[in-house]
Amino acid sequence: MAAHLTRPRAGCALHGALYAATAIDGVTPLVHATPGCGVQAGLWHGGGCSSGGAWPTSNLSEKHVVFGGASRLREQIKNTRGVVAGELTVVLTGCPAEMIGDDVAAMAQEARDAGDDIIDLATAGFRGSAYQGYAAFLEAAMAQAVAVAPRRTGLVNIFGPVPHQDGTWLAEIEELSRLIAGIGLTPNPVFGPFGGLDSLRASAHAELSVSVSPWSSAAVRALDARFGIPWIESAGLPVGAVATAALLAKIAAAAGEIDEAAARAFIDHERRREAYCLDRLLETLFRQGGPRAFALALPSLHASGIARFLIQTLGWAPAVIVLTDNPASDGRAALQDGLSAVHYSEDDDEIADLIRASAADIVFGSSLERIVADRLGTPLIECATPTNRLSLTTGFGGFRGSLALLEAIVTAAESK
To answer: Which Pfam families match (predicted)?
Structure first.
């Protein structure tokens, strides 16, 4: 029998796919489910960068549950294409539509036969969390990609941060784009203001794909299988100069012809900036308690990178590390490589018990860890959703992310 989860911190698969679709200009999501499914997605936490709630839906009622909702979906597809100015429609199914067996694929095929650009995707909540919905959306989008133009030299696909589910997703994508551009390549972020449907389609023409999360692993492999686009995987976002420089070196080597001197100059410039700022914080960090034992409860996008930065750069020790998004077992080895006290849990009560038992001096997590941090009398650094921290421009990945993390540590410790 499956175990229940207490206060899970990720929405369902429908939410993850919906968040991804809404983060690509030119893509229109259409929710085939009851009104509550769309409402819940709009209300779910967005880490200060909410996904909102304006999207078409078939609004299934009891009548449709009894007699079927396929005809209602046919009507809504027609209405959506006539009213909403999107080039690609993605039909996302909720639990009711899949439980009653609506033939969504047939309705989508009818629309394609009529000349519409449309994808249908099974995203019922029982299929998993928002992270799994994001992964399913990416796979479906890559399956629709068509390479009709020559490879674009220097173009690098960026995948990993889950829009709206990862609280700092936009800042992380923009920092990764800045880093890739800094070594002389062209970033292709897909999601956010500098992505869009054109970027999604261009992913089939890229020279390289970079994945910084296990949830985008299948997508980069699909691009390789279909179009021969090589890929690089990172065990989460790199945090700080050491990890970021190592990832950029791999990207530069895989991308082929770049100006190596200019790339080295960019990396050295960023290294100096971190070293300069860190030197000026050492006295403050020592005065606040010196090396500490930390507890960390974060999804895989941030968990490993932040933990390694705290250990390797600050000399702190992990009391407990909890990855809260339950990544697949085949991706866990890389995530926990070289780390100790690693656990995997999506359950709020279990996570709180692990942190409480660790007797950590400082906690990195979401606002859900506020209670246990207060009971331990330790500072809490909010790095994940749900969070009260607004993070439109500042994430925790890359060169700049490590400085944001240091700022948060010093500020939180001073307030205690």
So the answer is: Oxidored_nitro
